[in-house]
Amino acid sequence: MDAAAALSRIHEKHLDIIYIDPPYEGPLSAQIVKALANMPYVDEETLIIVETSLSSDFSFLEGEGFVLEREKCYKSQRHLFIRKA
Fold first, then answer.
1. Residue 85: C-alpha distances to residues 42, 64, 69, 75, 82 (Å)
2. DSSP secondary structure of 4-52
């Protein structure tokens, strides 16, 4: 099943942490984060951690209602720590 489509099958009332580590190249990270913006189990207390490439563009976060709380860069990838605004 497609990862973004599977998000609607989660029936928890709240999730504390969501960790996303899809293939770095391609639109899947952005698709998943955008889909999470509309999920009822994601709120201001949910921490979303995305592992992605150093060059990936996440400038869309604010438009989707998210804030980037922290970014940790490594040699070839980075972790983004995101919450709902």
1. 11, 9, 10, 29, 9
2. HHHGGG---S--SEEEE---SSSSHHHHHHHHHTT-TT--TT-EEEEEE
Two structure tokens written together for 32: 């998943």
Task: State percent of the chain over pLDDT 90.
Answer: 76
Q: What is the DSSP letter of 61?
A: T
Q: How far is CA 50 from CA 18, 72, in A?
A: 8, 10
Place of tokens 């980075």: 78
By three-state DSSP, how is residue 84 classified?
A: strand
Query: Which two structure tokens, joined as six digits, stand for 26?
Result: 């391609």
Q: What's the one-letter identity of residue 9? A: R
Single-letter amino acid, residue 3: A
How high is the pLDDT of residue 2?
80
